[in-house]
Automatic annotation (TrEMBL):
rRNA processing found in the keyword field: no
Record bears the keyword Disulfide bond: no
SUPFAM superfamilies, A to Z: Multidrug efflux transporter AcrB transmembrane domain (SSF82866)
Protein name: Membrane transport protein MMPL domain-containing protein
Species of the source: Candidatus Aphodousia faecigallinarum
Keywords, sorted A to Z: Membrane, Transmembrane, Transmembrane helix
Highest taxon of the lineage: Bacteria
Residue ranges crossing the lipid bilayer per the database entry: 254-272, 281-304, 310-331, 352-371, 377-396, 435-455
Amino acid sequence: MPIRKIILASWQVLAVTWALLLILALGFNTHYFLKNGVDFDQAHLYPVTQVDDARTAAQKNLAPFANYRLIFMVGLPEYTAASYDDNVLKIRGQWKVPDVLKKVNWEGLEINEYFSFYRLISNRLMNLIDQHTITNASDDELLARALESLTGVGQASLIPKSDDPLGFFDRWAQKRLPRSTVVSSGDTLKLYADNRVWAIFVYEAPDNLEGLSAFELNDSIEQLKQISSSIVPGSVVKVHGKAYIGAAAAQTHFLELSGIATFILIFLGGLIRRWSPSNRFWLLVAFSILSSYIVGFFTVVIFFNSISLWAIVCSSALTGLVTMLVGYFLLTHRHYPKNSPTQILDRIFRPLLWIVFIECIALLILYIAPLPAVRQMAVFMSSGLLASAITLVLIFPSFNPGPIAESDFSKKMGVFSRYFPRISLKHWQERPTDYSASGLVLAILLAAGFFQLNFSQNIENLTYISPEISKEEATVDRLLSLPNNDKFFIVTASNAQDVLMGEEALRLGFVRRGMNKTDMTTTCISKWFPSYTRQKDIEHLRIEMFNRVREPLSDVLGYPLPEPNPTQLDVRFEDWLSSPSANSVRHLWLAVPEGYSSIVQVAGMTEQQMKNLYQLADYLA
């Protein structure tokens, strides 16, 4: 064989070259891991799919919120509310946050900074529910509402009461906040809920969690819990964000790797020792495993510029494949003790190539899966297996190892293995029915079992998330009414106004299906800036409703009530979208090459409501 002749002609040169390459790769891997660490970003477990421009833009716009927003909530007992500011100062003074985390503002409170603008378009703002239910109210109900709006104690700074006698703008403004009880206290948010006063700290992690250590983040969270408990006994800490989930999963993965390494040392090492008392066997196995992992890490880093901790855990199965190849070489040598290592290699070279080829192809087929971590695992294991085969071919004969010694255990296993059932191609050719019947029965059983399986396409099942963390995330979602960043609607149309009207039609569908009576709510562009058509409808509706109660309301007040005529501006949608008043929702408007698109986010959504939402989207489409 030409390959064999080349190897034999320069065996030692190739062996030394391969050893030097392994040393260089080891140095590269060491430098990379010391500088970058491993990838524990949960966002990198998501499928890589070819989607339309709108979905790609939506994923890009929501990525900072979905993948890198971290919310820390410290729940202090309600009786400590009077000393809230002092307690928060103590917590902030002692708590060390990872340097790469950046403090951010809570978008829901930014409306307070721009009420002066929204007052200038107040005649065109109204809650969707008010717009579609107010006409069904009786005159007495409208009069009672007007009296409550004009005489009740409310936020007088929002708009003069005489400019909004039925309180439409006041009700609109109150609905813009995720929770009316969330207020700003310095650079910390304050929330009264669940018989506690919560201090809320919002941070943003860097893209791809670059520079953020899972251990550092976990230590910071534990430190926050200890500090809070020491300052106010009975305090609780809640954390929300995929960076937090990734750090917790990373801790679990490191424990798994420790367990796998311990199992390999004890079980595999003990089995090898039982199979042969010679030290040569386990030394060569250890060297082959080391070379396979060095090349596996190197290849993945070169191809992907990162390596997933999830992929490392799953690729630990490579150890068994490498051990099999080494055992194949050494055990064959033991059966032919008078042959040299070169002769043994010549005997097993062709079968060895077939074994490596078939296993590498089988592993690389996994690359078809559109999951970055699975692709990394496929490349890691196939390149590592190939490296172990090269090590076996080049390095082992250079050591010129003699046959490994045989133990009583290996002799017993050799006798016992004769009774193992074997599939013989020659036997199948001569008597095919011996295999056909059993094969048919096996196929029927597998098919019957396959159709009994229940499949779930939840990407979160790729990694373990403890029930405690899931419950913690759900609690923060409920307290802050956080919109879902993974499940949302995309509205696409040929012009911006059609997009806004599409959002309004979707929200109206929620109302007509009674979903507004649950905790579910929406976040979208049209809630802040209605379409031009709806703005005109609201203006006419406000005048119509006022005229219905104008006379009885004037009689109650004792003076003729003039028609509201506050100062209003004509604002173009494009001008509003580029102004600071749209900061809190600008990420919901998508930049796409053709047409116009926007995101409608939903908060407080339960799994039971998902089916209704799908049906509604199909109906509107």
